[in-house]
Design a protein that fits this description.
Elements lengths: L12 H12 L3 H4 L1 H8 L3 H25 L6 H9 L1 H33 L5 H18 L1 H33 L9 H4 L5 H11 L5 H6 L8 H30 L11 H46 L5 H4 L10 H11 L7 H29 L6 H23 L3 H21 L16
Amino acid sequence: MTNEPTLKRDLSLAALVLFGLSYMTPMIVYGTFGILSSATFSAVPSAYVIALGAMIFTALSYGQMAKRYPMSGSAYSYAVKSFGPTIGFYVGWAVLLDYLFLPMVIWLIGAAYLSEAFPDVPSWLWLIGFVTISTAINIIGLKVANRVNLVVMAAQIFVIILFSVLLLVYLAETRAPGGHSLTAPFTGTDFSYQAIVAGAAIAAYSFLGFDAVSTLAEEAKDAQRNIPRAILAVTVIGGLIFISSSYVAQLAFPTNDFVNPDAAASEMALAAGGILFKSIFIATLIFAQLASGIAAQASGARLIYVMARDGVLPKTLLGRLHKTYCTPYVAILITGAIGLLALAMDITTSTSFINFGAMSAFFVVNLSLIVHYKRETDRRSPYAVVQLLIFPAIGAATSLFLLANLQIEAVTLGVIWVGAGFVYLAFLTGFFSRPVPTMRAGPP
């Protein structure tokens, strides 16, 4: 019998879906629209279609692995169970790159829009505000975060619908009849399959909400049933919102002649809805970024906590739970501190860094399911072949393909990060004279 605090199973299926969608931030489709429009030569919806197609197969693999191992370590836990602690460590180390940089990108986007609205206020001040508020809410716990998420999500959906209507009205007022093609948003101004695929590699980070859901397995009610359902629901709902919203936006703005691509949606909101709607849009986007930052930081902190609990990260420092709130408060503080590195980063580069860790993890999770198909010799029905072999094989191939299409800077940083992981693992194991610490049997 121990009096040590443990993670609490408080989250329902609805709360998990809400968490995942908040992590995704549906309005981020506007926050990154200018960047993606430039990268794809004005074919943003096509980039989201490819990204959704790739992510569906990986989401299904995550769901299958979550059924087998309802643990908070996500890809790290699945890799340990499938390939052993050494490969598991490298997967956990790689995905840390994703989880540590994602809050950074979220806070950067929020700060960019606040700076555009209030140019006299230093952007670093907004960034520090985001980090401080997110960290405080996460330490208090996910129940408080879910209340914030519910209000913010309702506001996001309302604004997305209103913005789409305003964009269609703007389109009708500014274009002559027959002056535009309904298929143009999918082909762009200068169709380039390579550019669209490169855009999809960037757009894929918008789907990371389903991965975040798996980190809450030890805080979910009936995790083996609800985590897989939530993962699939978040992926499909988020993907449909991204595709439809970007289609209308690209139709209304077929070129990427924005003054500031990082804040293109601000220009679009002003043109379509005037100063009042622009103010409403920016305010909602800021709150959406706050909710997303809370979710991203919560997920990253839980991955750090699980790796520390297993001994592959400093356990006495990072493996602690708050005695009152039962949250991994030290890991939360660490992710907040790392988020301040955003002061020296830009959105495009840091987004690509995220995708290196995410795509690496996605690739391994798909391979993990294939390994389990080979182990589970009693499951050889046609359904099992499709679900446990063909689908994860497609997911692995698409993840590897998107990984290969990342910016060279992102790949370079990823390789350096993995190299640093090798050095750390050598230190941890006395230059490999001791075994890699392995995970405990499961959650307490």
